[in-house]
Specification:
The chain has two helices and two strands; from the N terminus they run H-E-H-E. With 56 residues, the protein is α+β, with helices and mostly antiparallel strands. Helix 2 links the parallel strand 1 and strand 2. The longest helix has 12 residues.
């Protein structure tokens, strides 16, 4: 387990593990947010050292 902010922890874990693909989910909480990604999944796609597949 990596201490710190969840996005930094995920990115560090992927980098240290040498992963090729990260699969991450997001959940819309209402119809307004159905088409908007969660802030964590959106940030992970920008900072991850590997390809990211976001699923709903």
């Amino acid at each position: 387990m990596v201490a710190g902010h969840e996005v930094e922890s995920i990115a560090t874990f992927c980098k240290e593990g040498g992963f090729d693909l990260l699969v991450i989910g997001f959940m819309g909480h209402s119809r307004i947010f159905e088409r908007i990604w969660g802030s964590t999944s959106q940030t992970v796609t920008r900072v991850a050292p590997c390809s990211v597949l976001v699923v709903k």
